[in-house]
Amino acid sequence: xxxxxxxxxxxxxxxxxxxxxxxxxxxxxxxxxxxxxxxxxxxxxxxxxxxxxxxxxxxxxxxxxxxxxxxxxxxxxxxxxxxxxxxxxxxxxxxxxxxxxxxxxxxxxxxxxxxxxxxxxxxxxxxxxxxx
Amino acid sequence: xxxxxxxxxxxxxxxxxxxxxxxxxxxxxxxxxxxxxxxxxxxxxxxxxxxxxxxxxxxxxxxxxxxxxxxxxxxxxxxxxxxxxxxxxxxxxxxxxxxxxxxxxxxxxxxxxxxxxxxxxxxxxxxxxxxx
DNA sequence: GCAATATTTGCCCATTTGGTTTAATATCAA
DNA sequence: TTGATATTAAACCAAATGGGCAAATATTGC
Lengths: 132, 132
What we know:
The structure is a homodimer.
Chain A: H1 16-32, H2 35-44, E1 49-50, H3 51-55, H4 62-74, E2 78-83, E3 86-91, H5 94-123
Helix pairs in contact in A: 1-4, 1-5
The structure holds a DNA duplex.
């Protein structure tokens, strides 16, 4: 074939809003893709805490935890209120809702897919459906 | 500064199951933390496709897309069935359910938080429940 | 003022990531 | 067989990540 791949112009246009949403999802998912940070969120789900308190259970230096907190903060997953030397951190609800919203896109697929799977199991038994 | 931080033994024990779940969540969230990969998932939500088809809309080389697909696959987000030269990819439902499950942990916090906010707004109790 | 506390910043390092290009492999089709 | 197609593998590179440590910056309290 002459054109194995479509030209760049043929790609779907991406709106500014989409790009902003993508940036946010990038930051949110990246922030969640680390168990230390997820652990910090789990701790904060039990209530606000200052940085030193948050860092205490982790076998790493304070600056490292501080950096993790900044990643969480820049993803909007936590907020901090500074009172003197004390930085009090607390969970924020909005970004996790963002994730929920993103997931909702696929929930429709799941349901449809489970139905299709049920159909498939009954109809086609000869060829292996999917080699893992 | 005798014991500024608790000893390693004081940290909560982490079970093997937890570590496996953490590994999986690491892979899932990392896989989702890239817009190209999310875009691939969005495409696959509309139905299975072969690698070349999947790569076509993206302004990057085929090997790059191939790598992205492998990341998605190793996170269990997609599965592939190989038929001759054709690798057919399709969405998998399980990992997104895993994310849902993880999110459910925090949903309780949201509700409690929204309830607290509602209480705060409606009634005249003194003192906000949680500093933002 | 001075020391202790809470936190961040800067620099260093090894590893990973996300992309490239150029083979290599496997399959289909003429 | 020969050549095109579908896909991965290998080697490479720049940039980001996650960790360390030492120093800087505020702030608190004596």
